[in-house]
Amino acid sequence: MSDSRIQQTKGYEITYKEDGVYLTVYPPVGYINKVNQNDVLNHITKKGIEGYNANVIVEAVKRRDGKAVKIAEPQPEKRVDSTVEAFASEDKMQAYITATQPEGGGDVPTFEMIVRALKDKGIVACINEDRIREFINSPIYGVPVLVAEGIPPQNGKNGSLRYLVDIHKDRKPVIMEDGTVNYKDINLIENITKDQKLVETIPPIPGKDGINVVGTVLKALDGKPAIIPRGRGVYTNPEGTELYAEIDGQLRIVDGKINVYSVYEVPADVDNSTGNIRFIGNVTVRGNVLSGFEIEAGGDIEVDGVVEAARLRAAGNIILKRGMVGGGKGELIAGGDIIAKFIENSKVEVEGDLKAEAIMHCDVKCGNSIILGGRKGLLVGGIARVGKYVEVKYLGNQMYTQTVVEVGFDPHLRERLKSLKAEIIKMEEGLLKANQAIALLNKLKAATGELPMDKRELLAKSTRTRFFYESKLAECKKEMAAIEERLQQGAVGKIKVMGSVYPGVRVAIGNAMLYIKEENKYCTMYSDGADIRFGPL
User: Fold this and answer.
1) Are the CB atoms for 212 and 93 separated by under 8 Å?
2) Which of 190, 164, 344 is nearest to 243 (CA)?
3) Per residue in 481-521, pLDDT tens?
4) 8 and 62 share a domain?
5) In a domain, 154, yes or no
6) Which of 285, 227, 281 is nearest to 252 (CA)?
7) Total tally of structural domains belonging to the chain
8) What is the dihedral of CA 373, 315, 322, 396, to 10 degrees?
């Protein structure tokens, strides 16, 4: 070993010469190699140097001048084997070895020696044999060397919830192509259908146990299963891992729980803050519905305030506690009944009954009955097509405002009949073209004996088209015949006037028509098949 290496490691050197044993203590470099006399004496004792002079050694350590001094008489250097000490860290997750340097041709550490030293200290697990072999091939003496590392426990991961619906609706308005902002179609409601899957759980991941270097198993924590925050209007599968909607309705998160409500409530007005409303269940509006906005409901619509020039469409009933001022643009469309305080300048379509105090200047299609009572009981202006029955206090007014009332035929049947006639015309045109193509291709086949592939495909397509049109035509004609038969059976309609009917009113019951030319009071109008008659209440 070179002097510089000795100075870097021990700071002193012991040499054996013909005239004696010598000690050289080198000057320290900074804080490095500050030799301790006890370390030197212990080393000399370990080497088995006989008859050494302790005083000379102490003086040499004090001087540290790099000069060799004789400390003992001549003698052969004794053999000193390397020793290995093992120890574990305080948390037992690492284990180290420290080896002494062999001297005088002593034995170097062996693999078996190191493993034995580890076992003597109870270090039996996670031993890195590759590191031990690296140490044997390139030993480093007097420095702790890491030869074993424990495996820490890996705690599991808790289960989580996977939402299959949007629980955070984007409330940003839509920017149109022309740069304008659409504040109406904000789409705030998450509509849910019955038995729709809303949430499913992701299973927890179990933990992996660890082990330290002394062989103690370190227990890991397993992940906990996720708990579905079940609220109202929902149910879980038998395993409790999936959540479903119990009803059609609106998804809402309340106090961290998932709920489905059958009613969507607007606490104030339907305006830019709410946008248009499209909901699968019932809709309740505590304020007004402003012009230009729409409400579509799979159930009923109920409005506490006034409806302006808006569009309301309900599969069920529409209830307007105050009324509607449509301004010629408002629309009410109901699959059930409509009940309102008043309706002005609006388009109204109702499958069931229409009940109000006043209907003024409206276009009305009513499948069943119009009943106008209360203080006014007024039907004036516009046109009302009613399936069965009309009951009013006042029909028309003293200003002879033009008012049309048609009773006895379901207006929706008339609309359907009109639509069917248009469909039949289009399908007959399509059938004619298909037959013409088939005839032309068959003529070509007869002339040539065989059609090319593209013509054969065209013939097959034209044949399928003919079958389609023939089938649809038969269905439409059957439905049209049934509607015409119902209409030809004659109208059973009646108009009851609890107050007055005024000139300017045109009444039609079935195929009979009557222009009112003078005021009539407290009467019932009905058809005898050819004419409209007046009868008592």
Assistant:
1) yes
2) 164
3) 887 776 665 456 899 999 999 999 999 887 788 999 999 99
4) yes
5) no
6) 281
7) 5
8) -40
